[in-house]
């Protein structure tokens, strides 16, 4: 259980690129990083494309004006001159900038925590993976809900044989916020549907990479062998990128899966759902009710497991904060992701290899696998939604 005790000898000096006043995701990063006493300390930022807005906003969230920078190149150059310069940088900017900013930070000797989808291509991910390894630097990826304790409970129960052999994996990440989009798109929406700024996908990268990684955290031994992807732009203004997609896939153990992702699922507020069906029982979790896990044994009454209860596995209790009955949610899950990345950075800095290997966090490989998933989905959809061997 976590109770605010310091896990690191001192906080990591942390900066942000992006995540400014108008950003959708910036506050989630700060909630996650600053939740646990002494893991991170926000010292600088190039928070915005607009330099004036960057300083105005940065000072209002407590950063010294001289450490609010008009662009990230200047931030890296100026911070390198300081004895108390930044050590780790979060990248919370539109997708097309992730690779360039991450590479520049690593070259400057800084750890990186980057948004998803990590980059545009697996080749870019491999290059960055090698660069980070050569400099003993960590690259974490903010799959925000992947730190939720009840996902760790699902993993533990499956490992303990509680559902039998895994047969089906049913994933969903859909919402309806773009169902009514006309031709006029907001700034954040416009870059998401432009291949130059979003990459080769919209909702598959924007939403489904989260669920894909969460399923992998629960089922680390299952690997996709082939898939087929059917995707379309149901709202013409989103073309050429998809606002809706269905993906079918086969795993190496004979299990089958399906994933539906959409931003035009009008009215749906139960966005993310993970159901794992085994030969004896099923487990189901929903992001809308994250503290609850449904355990359904064939022929028996359903069981409803609650977050924070002592009957849960220690993997699920390790990152508990509030205790049962007191709801947690997305902010706490982000804090778990950030804390695990802080522990990885600290272990890497101390050269503690065994400790580093023991930390479970979304790393550069997880980012790469998300991009690989996108490349395979695109290859299938561009072949008339044919089944393709997973590469
Ligand atoms: P947004 O368009 O709402 O905000 C982007 C922010 O980055 C703005 O503050 C903008 O001024 C700033 N920015 C853009 N280019 C910059 C540059 N070169 N230097 C400094 N600042 C720059 O975008 P949003 O929705 O916040 O998404 C950003 C990233 O986060 C995307 O990669 C997106 O996929 C990801 N995201 C992740 C979520 C998660 O749950 N992990 C949720 C929402 C977005």
From TrEMBL:
<dbReference type="InterPro" id="IPR000683">
    <property type="entry name" value="Gfo/Idh/MocA-like_OxRdtase_N"/>
</dbReference>
<dbReference type="InterPro" id="IPR051317">
    <property type="entry name" value="Gfo/Idh/MocA_oxidoreduct"/>
</dbReference>
<dbReference type="InterPro" id="IPR004104">
    <property type="entry name" value="Gfo/Idh/MocA-like_OxRdtase_C"/>
</dbReference>
<feature type="domain" description="Gfo/Idh/MocA-like oxidoreductase C-terminal">
    <location>
        <begin position="155"/>
        <end position="388"/>
    </location>
</feature>
<feature type="domain" description="Gfo/Idh/MocA-like oxidoreductase N-terminal">
    <location>
        <begin position="12"/>
        <end position="143"/>
    </location>
</feature>
<dbReference type="InterPro" id="IPR036291">
    <property type="entry name" value="NAD(P)-bd_dom_sf"/>
</dbReference>
<protein>
    <submittedName>
        <fullName>Gfo/Idh/MocA family protein</fullName>
    </submittedName>
</protein>
<dbReference type="Pfam" id="PF01408">
    <property type="entry name" value="GFO_IDH_MocA"/>
</dbReference>
<dbReference type="Pfam" id="PF02894">
    <property type="entry name" value="GFO_IDH_MocA_C"/>
</dbReference>
């Amino acid at each position: 259980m976590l109770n605010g005790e310091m896990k690191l000898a001192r906080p990591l000096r942390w900066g942000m690129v992006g995540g400014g006043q108008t950003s959708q995701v910036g506050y989630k990063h700060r909630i996650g990083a600053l939740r646990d006493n002494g893991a991170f300390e926000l010292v600088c930022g190039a928070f915005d494309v607009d330099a004036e807005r960057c300083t105005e906003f940065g000072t209002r969230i407590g950063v010294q004006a001289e450490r609010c920078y008009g662009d990230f190149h200047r931030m890296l150059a100026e911070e390198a001159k300081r004895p108390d310069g930044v050590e780790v940088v979060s990248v919370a900017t539109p997708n097309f900038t992730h690779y360039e900013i991450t590479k520049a930070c690593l070259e400057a000797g800084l750890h990186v925590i980057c948004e998803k989808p990590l980059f545009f291509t697996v080749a870019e991910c491999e290059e960055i993976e090698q660069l980070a390894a050569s400099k003993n630097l960590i690259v974490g990826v903010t799959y925000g809900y992947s730190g939720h304790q009840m996902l760790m409970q699902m993993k533990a129960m499956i490992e303990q044989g509680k559902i039998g052999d895994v047969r089906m994996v049913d994933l969903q990440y859909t919402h309806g916020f773009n169902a009514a989009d006309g031709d006029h798109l907001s700034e954040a929406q416009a870059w998401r549907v432009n291949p130059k700024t979003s990459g080769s996908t919209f909702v598959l990268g924007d939403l489904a990479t989260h669920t894909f990684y969460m399923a992998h955290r629960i089922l680390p031994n299952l690997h996709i062998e082939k898939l087929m992807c059917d995707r379309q732009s149901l709202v013409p203004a989103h073309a050429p990128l998809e606002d809706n997609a269905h993906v079918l896939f086969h795993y190496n153990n004979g299990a089958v899966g399906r994933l539906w992702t959409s931003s035009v699922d009008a009215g749906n507020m139960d966005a993310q759902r993970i159901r794992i069906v085994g030969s004896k029982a099923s487990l189901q979790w929903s992001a809308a009710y994250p503290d609850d896990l449904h355990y359904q044994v064939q022929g028996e009454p359903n069981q409803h497991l609650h977050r924070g209860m002592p009957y849960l596995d220690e993997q699920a209790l390790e990152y508990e904060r509030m205790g049962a009955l007191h709801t947690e949610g997305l902010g706490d899950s982000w804090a778990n992701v950030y804390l695990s990345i802080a522990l990885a950075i600290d272990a890497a800095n101390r050269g503690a290899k065994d400790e580093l290997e023991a930390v479970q966090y979304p790393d550069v490989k997880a980012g790469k696998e998300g991009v690989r998933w996108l490349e395979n989905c695109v290859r299938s959809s561009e072949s008339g939604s044919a089944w393709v061997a997973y590469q």
